[in-house]
C-alpha cells in the first residue's frame, strides 16, 4: 500500500543558529509538523559546536522520521570565516541525512524566495508572513532561521509538484 503522506524536513544551515522545519504533504494538503533551531554557543570549541549540531539533528530526524530533506545551498559570504563555519555545519547536516538514508535535495536562496514569495530577493519579514499564511499558523514563525527552514521545505514541495530541483 502506498504511503499517503510525505514528510519534508527543511534546513537553513548555520553554525551559530541552524533552522529546521517539518511539513507534511498529502496530495494538495500541506500541514505544519514543527520547527525550531539548533543553537551553538560562541566561544565554544568548533568541534564541540559541530558535534552539538550533529547530535541534535540526529535526534530530530529520529523523532520526526522525514521522508525527504531539503537544504539551502550556501551563498556568497563577505566574511570568509563565517563561510567556512557555515560550510562545516552544512557538511555535518549532509552527513547526518546521508547516514540516516534521507534523500537530500538542495535549493539556492533565490529558488527558495522565488517559490515562496514569487520574488527572488524578498526580505526575511516577507518570508515569515507568507509561511504563516501558507501553513495556517496563529503566530509568525520565529526566529528567521526557523522560518527560512520552513520556506526551504515549502520550496521542495513546489519542486516536487513541478520537477527540476537538485538531488543528491
Automatic annotation (TrEMBL):
Q: Where does Mg(2+) 1 bind?
A: 12, 145
EC code(s) of this entry: 3.1.21.10
UniProt-listed InterPro entries: RNaseH-like_sf (IPR012337), RNaseH_sf (IPR036397), X-over_junc_endoDNase_RuvC (IPR002176)
**Uppermost EC category:** hydrolase
Quick check: keyword DNA damage in the entry? yes
Positions of Mg(2+) 2 binding: 72
| Pfam families referenced in this protein's UniProt entry, alphabetically | RuvC (PF02075)
Per UniProt, subcellular location reads as:
Cytoplasm
Q: CDD domains, alphabetically?
A: RuvC
The alphabetized list of GO BP terms reads:
DNA recombination; DNA repair
Q: Reaction catalysed?
A: Endonucleolytic cleavage at a junction such as a reciprocal single-stranded crossover between two homologous DNA duplexes (Holliday junction)
Q: What does this protein do?
A: The RuvA-RuvB-RuvC complex processes Holliday junction (HJ) DNA during genetic recombination and DNA repair. Endonuclease that resolves HJ intermediates. Cleaves cruciform DNA by making single-stranded nicks across the HJ at symmetrical positions within the homologous arms, yielding a 5'-phosphate and a 3'-hydroxyl group; requires a central core of homology in the junction. The consensus cleavage sequence is 5'-(A/T)TT(C/G)-3'. Cleavage occurs on the 3'-side of the TT dinucleotide at the point of strand exchange.
**What protein family is recorded?**
Belongs to the RuvC family.
Q: Which HAMAP family match?
A: RuvC
Assembly with partners or alone:
Homodimer which binds Holliday junction (HJ) DNA. The HJ becomes 2-fold symmetrical on binding to RuvC with unstacked arms; it has a different conformation from HJ DNA in complex with RuvA. In the full resolvosome a probable DNA-RuvA(4)-RuvB(12)-RuvC(2) complex forms which resolves the HJ.
Please report the name of this protein according to its UniProt entry.
Answer: Crossover junction endodeoxyribonuclease RuvC
Gene this chain is encoded by: ruvC
Amino acid at each position: 500500500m502506498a504511503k499517503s503522506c510525505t514528510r519534508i524536513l527543511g534546513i537553513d544551515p548555520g553554525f551559530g543558529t541552524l533552522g529546521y522545519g517539518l511539513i507534511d504533504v498529502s496530495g494538495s494538503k500541506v500541514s505544519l509538523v514543527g520547527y525550531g533551531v539548533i543553537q551553538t554557543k560562541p566561544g565554544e570549541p568548533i568541534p564541540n559546536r559541530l558535534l552539538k549540531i550533529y547530535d541534535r539533528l540526529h535526534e530530530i530526524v529520529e523523532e520526526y522520521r522525514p521522508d525527504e530533506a531539503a537544504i539551502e545551498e550556501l551563498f556568497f559570504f563577505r566574511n570568509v570565516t563565517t563561510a567556512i563555519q557555515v560550510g562545516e555545519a552544512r557538511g555535518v547536516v549532509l552527513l547526518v541525512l546521508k547516514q540516516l538514508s534521507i534523500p537530500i535535495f538542495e535549493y539556492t536562496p533565490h529558488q527558495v524566495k522565488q517559490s515562496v514569495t514569487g520574488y527572488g530577493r524578498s526580505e526575511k519579514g516577507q518570508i515569515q508572513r507568507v509561511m504563516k499564511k501558507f501553513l495556517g499558523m496563529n503566530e509568525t514563525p520565529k526566529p528567521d532561521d526557523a522560518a527560512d527552514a520552513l520556506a526551504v521545505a515549502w520550496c521542495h514541495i513546489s519542486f516536487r509538484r513541478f520537477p527540476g530541483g537538485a538531488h543528491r
